[in-house]
Amino acid sequence: MRIIIIGFGNLGRGICRAFVEKADFLKRAHGLVPRVVAVADEFGAAVDEKGLDLPRLLKIAEGSGTVVGYPGGKRGKLALDLIDEVSADVVFELTPTNIRTGEPGLSHIKRAMQAGKHVITSNKGPLVVAFKELDALAKKQGVEFRYSASVGGAVPVIGLAKKLLSGNEISEIRGVLNGTTNYILTRMSAEGLPQEIIIREAQELGLAEKDPTLDIDGIDTACKVTILANSVLGINAKLSDVKVVGIRRITPEATRLAHEAGQMIKLVGIARRDRLEVGPKLVPQGHPLAVGGTLNAVTFKLDLAGEISITGFGAGPKETSSSLLGDLIDIHRTLGG
Amino acid sequence: MRIIIIGFGNLGRGICRAFVEKADFLKRAHGLVPRVVAVADEFGAAVDEKGLDLPRLLKIAEGSGTVVGYPGGKRGKLALDLIDEVSADVVFELTPTNIRTGEPGLSHIKRAMQAGKHVITSNKGPLVVAFKELDALAKKQGVEFRYSASVGGAVPVIGLAKKLLSGNEISEIRGVLNGTTNYILTRMSAEGLPQEIIIREAQELGLAEKDPTLDIDGIDTACKVTILANSVLGINAKLSDVKVVGIRRITPEATRLAHEAGQMIKLVGIARRDRLEVGPKLVPQGHPLAVGGTLNAVTFKLDLAGEISITGFGAGPKETSSSLLGDLIDIHRTLGG
Amino acid sequence: MLVKMVMELEDVPGQLLKGLEPIARYGGNIKSIMHQRERKTPLGRLPVMLIFEVRDQATLKRILAALKEAGIRVTQLGEREGEILTTVLLVGHIVHTDIRHTIDQLNAIKGVTVSELNLAVGSMGRESSARMTIAANDRELAQLAISRLQTIAEKKGLLLVTSVEAI
Amino acid sequence: MLVKMVMELEDVPGQLLKGLEPIARYGGNIKSIMHQRERKTPLGRLPVMLIFEVRDQATLKRILAALKEAGIRVTQLGEREGEILTTVLLVGHIVHTDIRHTIDQLNAIKGVTVSELNLAVGSMGRESSARMTIAANDRELAQLAISRLQTIAEKKGLLLVTSVEAI
């Protein structure tokens, strides 16, 4: 399969590392030989229709911060042009998220679909801004559109709902969907430290962004709730439809009071047909959503199966590549290519 | 889709009830119109190539204990002949499990495949006795072979591993896979009652079989470990390869001693390439496998995603129909029929 | 509405099911079952203590009639009032915004009582936290209390943290 | 092998990471981090207490060298012996089969100690249960103790219940 990767940060590099390390496995288990023919970042692109030398590309990108230094690299080459010009089966859109405009991911995805290329993305922005439009465009163009990594990181939340629980009507999805806030709340509860100190340490450990506002204020979780509402519940929901409360006001005393009553405070996203909500909630110990550290957890309420819960790591480039790779294998299977 | 159902106990009736109650949903959401053209039980069969009247069939079967009373019903009709004679797309094999011979399910499944019919089963017997043979036969005949309901009940354990975590190499599967023993251990720990009393009550509540030996002695769990080893890990394992210890010797005092140390005793099945095992294990509270009541839980160890766990109800005709229906929808999607 | 009931069963298989079936039939939600095998009655019967939830008094009457019809002897029956316990947290300037008034507003609902309050006063300039346990006679009243509290919290600028299992 | 270490960091961003990186680089598995912000040193440095696991003494030396090179001051260092605690259950005729002998067999392994034993004697004719806590200096020794115990249990007809997290 010929692949174009747009965006070469942690996730782009992570999936390339997986291609390198798991080449034998992918061929043996799935008959899949991924060939990365072009990679674009904000500075330019590297292209080789015969397939880029990935170990070399990774070394160059890690050294210089861009792929432009790859032999024959094109400084200033625009991703949009690359998508049009390079022949490929699948485009990975892995640029940073902008939840207001969806750009630049939104334009990349549309252009790829218009060019008849399948799209795999982890980018919440385009999904939050234009889910319906992209879904319709993919159908119209007859291409596959996958976004497993956008919710739950390594936890296959969307696939579980759409592929494995397909016989059920889903009445509610509840989840701990943001690893950063879960890490903060877990440490607040365990150590009684104020939020600011834990946030600073989380930043030092690479567990929180430089600007953790989107996490702390519940916006990231609200984006995921919006995506689940659209993709799983089939509601045409917008981010502004989600009632959002973050964790900013949660104090160490509040976590202690909860703990004394056998409860934990978790930032929970809830998607139901009549209500989309994000807010801190009390979760009893032993409850499927009572997961610690950076773990994510999601519970589905179902008419046949009752309740199904799934737990795992919500972030990290290696973990997320599990979802990206799963999408690629699934497209490969679907097309039999 | 034209469907033959072999075996009309709790599960056969459960899936028919789901066909009736969810007819609108299945058509709207999946374009699926299941038409049950024949049902066989141990006494005979009911056949209508235009589709049986399911509410009527259910009423008759619940009243008389057999489908033979359905208009035109054929007393003494053999399932094997039915499979050959009636034109259909899919055969549901839902007869009782025999873990030594796999019969009668094994013959039913083979006959169906030979007749070019897809097979969906919940029956552990044939899978434990002849996994490799059946897998090969399905491939040779070009038919789909699905058995989601055989492990985990409503919890899509096999689908999760094979469809959603496909980019990962799975090094270990651990699970609480038997609801009956989990119910017994949960109540022993909570109430300090001896095993025999709880077993009797579980039998009265319909949570345990009249002969609960296969559950208590860990054989049911070992069957599931064997199926997971074959289907997920790709090992050609037999039931006799599993080292099995049941819960018979677990006393209320043992559960209390565990509880005092923040642990629960769970009957855990473990499948690794180098070891297949079933036995009572100490599980710390808060651990993904520390689920109570009749819940099942499974944890996968994965090279990319780290660890993914899934929890839900492992038994019950309604819950299990979630898996059976999921398999049917997936075949329908795969074939585009 | 929570009901506590002790029934006497003969010590033969099938009896427990016979006693539970009428409760299940009328939508009763069984919370706990306690056999007291060591405390057999002189007639050799087993007392079984049940706690279950039913919609209302009328439903309970139907269940009792069905048990009688099935020949099951009910020896104790108690409606457990105030037994739906809900825990919530409040964060904000709780004392300054008159916690007494907040509690009074809830206690004013018939069948609802604030049964416990734990206050952790924040350090200088910081917000305080409180854990409140609300006892209600049934699920609807508990829900009413929560939504009343939500309104009060919004008015007073407090953050209300409810249970994930609450609607 | 478990190591307890206190390092002093300057109170500026990035310092913690700088201190943790050498540990991670040599495969150290960090078990807990405790900042003690309220206990700044006179020079305004922050003491940070770490507990981490390393393969062996040689690895620890490499980590210490790397920390020194990075300009991190290590103020306390202790190897915590006997710190891998493993809980197991035994079910069977524990006393009759000479529990003292079982314990002695484990204690005979250098670096392994049976640190706790709770015995619940079964009612007449029934099997007894015991919870045993085994302290070992490292993971390998803990594993050795478990497999030794497995052999003893099999010989004595006892059921051994180990942790799901044990190999």
Quick tags:
A: 337 residues; alpha/beta; Rossmann fold; Dihydrodipicolinate Reductase, domain 2; 2 domains; 7-stranded mixed beta sheet; 13 helices; 13 strands; C: 167 residues; alpha+beta; Alpha-Beta Plaits; 4-stranded antiparallel beta sheet; 8 strands; 31% helix; HDH_CS (chains A, B); EC 1.1.1.3 (chains A, B); NADP binding (chains A, B); Homoserine dehydrogenase (chains A, B); methionine biosynthesis (chains A, B)
Q: Short description, anyone?
A:
In chain A, a hairpin with a 2-residue loop joins β2 (35-41) and β3 (44-47).
| Fourth CATH level, the homologous superfamily of the largest domain in chain C | ACT domain
Q: Please state roughly what percent of the residues of chain A sit in beta strands, choosing from under 5%, 5-15%, 15-25%, 25-35%, 35-45% or over 45%.
A: 15-25%
Major sheet: arrangement of strands of chain C: 2-3-1-4
Biggest interface? A-B, 47 and 47 residues
**What's the alpha carbon Rg of chain A, rounded to whole Å?**
20 Å
Q: Would you identify the CATH architecture of the largest domain in chain A?
A: 3-Layer(aba) Sandwich
Termini separation of chain A (Å)? 8 Å
Mean pLDDT of chain C: 83
* CATH H-level superfamily of the largest domain in chain A: NAD(P)-binding Rossmann-like Domain
Share in helix of chain A = 40-55%
Gap between N and C termini of chain C, in Å?
18 Å
Largest sheet properties of chain C: 4 strands, antiparallel
Strand content of chain C: 35-45%
Put simply, the count of helices of chain A is 13
Number of strands of chain A: 13
Low-confidence stretches of chain A: none
GO molecular function (chains A, B): homoserine dehydrogenase activity; NADP binding
Keywords (chains A, B): Amino-acid biosynthesis, Methionine biosynthesis, NADP, Oxidoreductase, Threonine biosynthesis
GO biological process, one term (chains A, B): methionine biosynthetic process
Protein name (chains A, B): Homoserine dehydrogenase
